[in-house]
Every structure is written in structure tokens, then in C-alpha cells.
Design a protein that fits this description.
- The chain is an alpha+beta fold and 94 residues long.
- It has 5 helices and 2 strands, in the order ααβαααβ.
- A two-stranded antiparallel ribbon has the order 1-2.
- The chain is elongated.
- It starts with a helix and ends with a strand.
Length: 94
């Protein structure tokens, strides 16, 4: 760390930040197959849905169903492969 006032905010751990080796990054992709109902159930677990008004929740439900019914990659599919991307960072203490 170059700014000593920032280092002080970390207390005794500040010195450790100056000694970390370069960060290693990795990316992992995978997908989870979901039915239409499972996808809608997943949407309904998100905080933006849970805190929305009943009218907004109904609107989101309609929009998800419309997407599933009209998107060329999703129309008529029994299952949807929901892609995920996981980013990781790792460093070592010296």
C-alpha cells in the first residue's frame, strides 16, 4: 500500500496486504437444466421479486412467460439450460 492512512484502517492486517503474491484468477462455466416452472420458481426467489408489489410480481411472471414463449432459442423447449459463470480469485501469503 502506498497511502499510509489507508493502511491504518486495516489495523494489524495492513502489512499482510503488502506481502500478497499476484492474484490468480480463474473462470468456470456450467449450466443447469430447468423446466419453465423451475425457472419461474427461481425468479421468484430473487430479492427484487420478493420485495416487489403484487402487481409488479405478476408483471415479472408475465414477462418471463412471454420470453419463454417468444424467444427463438427458448420457444417449445421442455428444458432451458441456464448458464452460469463463476469467477474466482486466489492469492498466497508469503
Amino acid at each position: 500500500m502506498t497511502d499510509p492512512t489507508h493502511a491504518l484502517s486495516f489495523g494489524v492486517a495492513a502489512a499482510d496486504y503488502d506481502r500478497f503474491t499476484p492474484t490468480e484468477w480463474a473462470e468456470f462455466t456450467h449450466s443447469t437444466p430447468l423446466t419453465r416452472d423451475e425457472l419461474l420458481g427461481l425468479v421468484r426467489t430473487r430479492s427484487h421479486y420478493l420485495t416487489a408489489t403484487p402487481d409488479r410480481q405478476a408483471e415479472v411472471d408475465r414477462e418471463v412467460r412471454q420470453l419463454l414463449d417468444t424467444h427463438p432459442d427458448l420457444t417449445g423447449q421442455a428444458t432451458i439450460n441456464l448458464p452460469y459463470r463463476t469467477l474466482t480469485a486466489r492469492t498466497h501469503r508469503t
